[in-house]
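Example protein was shown:

_____
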Amino acid sequence: MKSSVSTRQLMLAATVTLSLMLSGCVIAIHDGERESYSATQEAQSLAFSVSDLIIGSSINEVVDQLGGAVDSEGFERNGKTYIVLYYVFNTSRNSATTPLVFVDGKLVGWGHQVLESARAD
């Protein structure tokens, strides 16, 4: 019997699931004190990393560099698998998150214009 789930679909589901598992706030307790690592602190640390992104990097390389995304989505179009990871880079802009767009596992760009272009392909 032929499976209705392709390897590409499984990879897409695994990547989206992993990225969602790695996102969120971290709370640590040291010597009875509670310390919270918020999205604002994350944005401040990521502001220094966005300029270091390299087109063609793999999803794993980007997640290793930036940490887990705050959100993600995926879709297929014209035989290509698109994964979009959302990061908080700059909270002063009108959009709180910046999409990083991957095609077949490689970074092709970031920003809402890149995402809209990918959706239109």
